[in-house]
Write a structure and sequence with these properties.
By secondary structure, the protein is α/β, with parallel strands linked by helices. The chain folds into 2 domains: 6-177 and 213-238, 3-Layer(aba) Sandwich (Rossmann fold), CATH 3.40.50; 182-212 and 243-295 and 313-332, UDP-galactose 4-epimerase, domain 1 (Alpha-Beta Complex), CATH 3.90.25.10. It contains 13 helices and 11 strands. It has helices at 27-38, 50-57, 73-80, 99-113, 147-164, 189-197, 219-227, 247-257, 269-275, 280-286, 290-293, 301-307, 315-328; strands spanning 19-22, 43-47, 63-67, 85-88, 118-124, 169-175, 178-179, 201-204, 214-215, 235-238, 264-267. α4 (99-113) packs parallel to α5. The radius of gyration is 20 Å and the shape is globular. The chain starts with 18 loop residues before the first strand and ends in a 15-residue tail after the last helix.
Amino acid sequence: MSAATFPQENAHPHPAPRIGLVGATGAVGASIASAFEAAATPYAVIGRSAASLARMAGDTRLAQARLWQPDDVDGMRPAFRGLDTLIYMVGVPYDAFHLHPQLMRRTIAAAAAEGVSRLLLIGTAYPFGRPQATRVDEAHPRMPHTRKGQMRKEQEDILMAADAAGTIRASILRLPDFYGPGVERSFLADIFAAAAEGRRAKVVGPIDTPHEFVFVPDVGPVARALVGREDAFGHTFNLGGAGTITVREVADRAFALAHRPPKLMVAGKTLLRLAGLFDPLMRELVEMNYLMTTPVVFDDSALQRLIGPIAKTPYDEGIARCMAAARDALSGKSGASPVPQTA
């Protein structure tokens, strides 16, 4: 099944999209897709899994599913054909961050070859490294001290250099750690599942440091607003959460909704390092533990000056919605340790 033929295999015809969501089948992709659905805007969902794409596009006449093969430029081009704008949120395994710059170079080359004019990258806080200010705005130095941060910075640099060269108009929307209903790969995810199941929650510590989390459903309308503005391109933007909260406070509120006392199993840096002797994925968490001890808290005033006030779901409401989803998903619970999806 090729990228060129897959769109025609959907069960019903779709309006021709001009916007493509690349790496669309994750939590952020679903949020952005919902925003385009609300605006009745046609869009393409682009990824490697035919089954996941079919599920995402199957219930709407606005979405068109397109397979891509990201291993080379030619394998990407058919998925981008006829599109004007890409929203890029491609994830890689947590121990394979060296792929981020490679994939961005190929994506830009394929997009330019197909006449795509704009690309919005959904990024992370990683390129900033340890925060040097209480609130981090776009002018904050990008001085990543971790391998993952360096690879994410290189990804950003490649994209913005393409913008400066006139190859493609580019913008970046950086997110902090996030959470949301049914979002499994989040630092907070096991809290909701454990509270619903009545077991001990596995969390990464320290748990009493004020932290910022963005509620995933809030991201989609922001991304939609950015691609609707030509003056968003050539710039980068940070999106903050609804203030700060500690992991302990999240747990207290979630377990209270389940009418249970909070029970936590906290893994600090030492325990992560020990676990990493046996689990490569846990080993990868060690270098990023600074985000729990010295969290990056975003200043998103530049973004709000551009698109206006941003609707941010209060933590109480977000936690309640996550708990409702966790109760609904009890039959599909997973015992995996939390891994951040903001990679």
